[in-house]
Amino acid sequence: MTAYVICAWGEAGAASGVAGVFDDVILTPANSPEDVVDTVCAGDTFLAGIRHSLIHGKCLNSAVKFACRIASEKVGSYGYDCLQSFHYEVEVE
Question: A Pfam family in this protein (predicted)?
Fold first, then answer.
């Protein structure tokens, strides 16, 4: 079983990699919304994006990209209604 390490850094994006492999860290930039309006549960939204992606067979890099995108969508809108129409459009690698 592979263990992943993911470090979300808010507006700085995220770093990720495989536990114990120190020379292959992936830095993923954040997606910036037009306006930051609601940061409540942005981290939970990020983690949900990771989990959703990995459950659906995406690689770690795609999962983190998707999580950054969906967390940005959440931060740029009030509440969670904006996520109902959010589409899973992360490339398969």
Answer: PfkB
Determine the Cα–Cα distance for residues 15 and 25; give it in Å rounded to an integer. 7
Q: How many domains does the chain have?
A: 1
Please check the confidence at residue 4 and state whether its pLDDT lies above 90.
Answer: yes
Choose among 86, 82, 18: nearest CA to 54.
Answer: 18
92 assigned to some structural domain: no
Q: What is the pTM of this model?
A: 0.85
Instruction: Give tens-digit pLDDT for 68-87.
Output: 999 999 999 888 887 877 76
Domain membership of residue 78 (yes or no) is: yes
